[in-house]
Design brief:
The chain is mostly helical. Helices cover 61% and strands 0% of the residues. The longest helix is centred in the middle third of the chain and has 14 residues. The N and C termini lie far apart (29 Å).
Length: 88
């Protein structure tokens, strides 16, 4: 895990995915317009499955930005279970 964080410490524009998981995290961060927090998405993949993160992304994309104003915050709210009653 430290190796991945070391690779992105110099900036996400210089990050080169070495695995499918790395690539997924990069694409997710890009789609959420939050590439500057790529390390956080890499860490989320240590705790959640790709299918769970994909479902949270679909929910966030469908809902759009929340009151905090960002698509990434809608994604994180969905992932944290704030919308368990909604179809997720």
């Amino acid at each position: 895990m430290t190796d991945i964080l070391d690779r992105i410490a110099t900036g996400p524009r210089q990050f080169r995915p070495r695995s499918v998981t790395d690539y997924f995290a990069l694409r997710l961060a890009t789609k959420l317009r939050d590439v500057e927090h790529l390390g956080a998405y890499l860490q989320l993949l240590q705790h959640h499955s790709v299918s769970t993160l994909a479902a949270a992304f679909r929910y966030a994309a469908k809902q759009g930005a929340n009151e905090a104003g960002t698509l990434s915050s809608t994604f994180l709210n969905a992932l944290s279970g704030e919308h368990q009653d909604d179809e997720f």
